[in-house]
Amino acid sequence: MWAFVLASAVLVAVPGPNMVYIVTRAAAHGRRAGLLSALGVETGTLVHAGLAVAGAAALLAASPVASGAIRWAGAGYLLRLGLRALRPRPAPTAPIVPEAAGRTFRDGVLVNLLNPKVGLFFLAFLPQFATTRAGLLVHGAVFFALALAVDLGYALAGAAVSGRLRVGGRWPAVIYLALAGYAALA
């Protein structure tokens, strides 16, 4: 288990699209949005782990069409978030307007679920450390706990710099659109 915890900690600590998404959400909409986004992203991680245990990740790996469809759906969803962020907003000096909690959480879940690489990661990574369903579930839960702790830290860091980053008001849209491009091309 310690080898898994160490390997997972290294993987979770490397910044990636989830971290960029969470920090952007926190910086643009405040600490609450960042924390809800982190909870949503990692709820998606739990779903991916469960799908890997159930064997669905193997089906995804075996079907380039399904994998591509999920990848394009994810890119489309990030594009939608980017376009939504381009809508007229209050002046940068106005207070942060919180988004609805359910929507913020749901966006985080969908950003993670619509990333086929996460499912494939669990297909390739978890079985190296556990072979039984119970073992896979335990290891998936451990990975979730590590990832959630790190993502909550990213959310708090994003919220801490939010006042300094809200100049111009369009940077979240640019980041979401860049993530959509990354998802489509990766």
UniProtKB/TrEMBL annotation:
InterPro entries: LeuE-type
Transmembrane feature ranges: 46-79, 109-130, 136-157, 169-185
Chief site of localization: membrane
Keywords noted in UniProt: Cell membrane, Membrane, Transmembrane, Transmembrane helix
Protein's membrane topology: Multi-pass membrane protein
Pfam families: LysE
Subcellular location: Cell membrane
Protein name per Swiss-Prot or TrEMBL: LysE family translocator
Organism name: Streptomyces roseoverticillatus
